[in-house]
């Protein structure tokens, strides 16, 4: 078992990585917890015992259930259960489950403890760590977006049981590798040279270090969005037929293309992105067919990272990856053309 500490003062917590880590769940619950509300999905291949009486709440599968309607349904269940601040919510599942469970925990009674049991590679290396929670805003009249409604709500602990990974489909593994490829460009670490447990623990450690220094994304934490601006637009435009990690892979090479067009990196660095994303991590780097480039630019303009004046991206440079504001939409559109 590998333990990674997320250092946040009196809100610090442990992330446990290893086979059978779910058996340590009870030790991560707050001492005050009398009961638990377990939030999960049908078919999640992991049963947990929080060590206290609990009720299970299943949410729907798919991005359309990552919504305020789901939060309302959960909260009504918590009300029937009589869940209080002396209890705990346990999210068991992938990134969607931990996002939803975390946001519900932040809102119920203005905040109750939450512990996550991550069952996907994507969740273990990214989604379950760091306290960012949220749901999507369904598009109405062209206005909506991914994770636009949420809160920062740190868990009391996170379990990454590697036993869950043997149940993942090849596509779900690729999704996790999309986020791992992002960490490659943030650190230069050769994650694929490590053992599975070491690789996941290193990703957790990288994110923990960033979160400790910038919990609410006022500065360096925004770098964790590398590749995500286009990725979120692609997810929305394809109605989530393109999964998050797959979209991040495309988004990483797009960010390199855009950085090249803006004169921030050279052709060799662009090729390195292709070598890592497509070669080492075996991810597709092509834009899906039939995508309207103008619509992608419009969607990127609705991203929650955008500030007034132009678009906001995380882009590479000779100094490393940086947040770049005020990018001309024309340059963003031209970079999409370069992708083709």
Task: Give short descriptive properties of this protein.
40% helix, Dehydroquinate synthase-like, alpha domain, 340 residues, alpha/beta, 2 domains, Rossmann fold, single chain, 11 strands, seven-stranded mixed β-sheet, two-stranded antiparallel ribbon
Task: Give your account of this protein's structure.
This protein has 340 residues and is α/β, with parallel strands linked by helices. The chain has two domains: 2-213, 3-Layer(aba) Sandwich (Rossmann fold), CATH 3.40.50; 226-339, Dehydroquinate synthase-like - alpha domain (Dehydroquinate synthase-like, alpha domain, Up-down Bundle). The chain is 40% helix and 20% strand. The protein has helices spanning 25-28, 68-81, 95-107, 121-127, 170-187, 196-213, 228-237, 244-261, 267-280, 293-301, 329-339, and strands spanning 2-6, 13-18, 36-41, 54-59, 88-93, 114-118, 132-140, 143-152, 157-161, 311-315, 322-327. It has a seven-stranded mixed β-sheet. It has a two-stranded antiparallel ribbon with strand order 7-8. Strands 10-11 form a two-stranded antiparallel sheet. β10 (311-315) and β11 (322-327) form a beta hairpin. The radius of gyration is 19 Å and the shape is globular.
In short:
It is built from eleven helices and eleven strands. The protein is α/β, with parallel strands linked by helices and 340 residues long.
